[in-house]
Amino acid sequence: MSSLSRLRQLLRDRSVKSGDFTLASGRRSRYYIDARLTTMSGEGQVLVGEVCWQVIAEAGWEADFVGGMTLGADPVAYAIANHATRLGRHLDAFTVRKQPKGHGTGRRIEGGLPAGARVVVVDDTVTSGGSLLAAVNAVAGHGAVVAGVLSLVDREEGGSERIAEAGYDYRAVFSGSDLR
């Protein structure tokens, strides 16, 4: 079984739930994808790193850093950075806080992201695209250059269109319909 097929099956088995849910966007849904149940597992980390790195490479996105809005993007970014490093590529991760830290350095972006760095902004699941665009805006406001935007799952509820309308090259590994 290919890594892509195994990751799809792992997401289906661990992360897709049926029921009545309110999403972060405020929308109601009959299914929920808690991708963290996959992305935070040992096997999920290996597969997410490999598969997402392949998408980044195929897109031709040259980047120095990968990251996004905490918490969903964190394990995705760490898996990709780890996989790239194992391939001999220099790629570090960063995290965007929802709000700047109220103590210490007061940073909103953690991980040593310098201005001018080329980045891929990631998330685990995209619905309306609001969280992903908030991360993109924070990174761009920090002075980094967004090479591409990637999600593990696109629920196909308008997020990809919003990201494209904002002028960013967006890719998703899976659509919501791939997992149901």
Structure description:
By secondary structure, the protein is an alpha/beta fold. It has one domain: Rossmann fold (3-Layer(aba) Sandwich). The protein has helices spanning 3-14, 36-39, 42-59, 73-86, 130-142, 159-165, 176-179, and strands at 16-22, 28-33, 65-69, 92-96, 109-110, 118-126, 145-154, 170-175. Strands 5-4-3-6-7-8 form a six-stranded mixed sheet, sandwiched between helices. A two-stranded antiparallel sheet has the order 1-2. The longest helix is centred in the first third of the chain and has 18 residues, at 42-59. The mean pLDDT is 96.
pLDDT averaged residue by residue: 96
Helix content: 40-55%
Classify the secondary structure makeup into a structural class.
Answer: alpha/beta
Largest sheet: 6 strands, mixed
Q: Kindly report how far apart the N and C termini lie.
A: 19 Å
- The CATH class, by name, is Alpha Beta
Order of helices and strands: HEEHHEHEEEHEHEH
Widest β-sheet, arrangement of strands:
5-4-3-6-7-8
Principal-axes geometry comes out as globular
- Total of domains: 1
Q: Which regions have little confidence, pLDDT < 50, spanning 5+ residues?
A: none
The count of strands amounts to 8
If you consult CATH, what is the topology? Rossmann fold
Quote the beta fraction. Answer: 25-35%
Question: Helix tally?
Answer: 7
CATH architecture: 3-Layer(aba) Sandwich
Radius of gyration: 15 Å
Oligomer: single chain
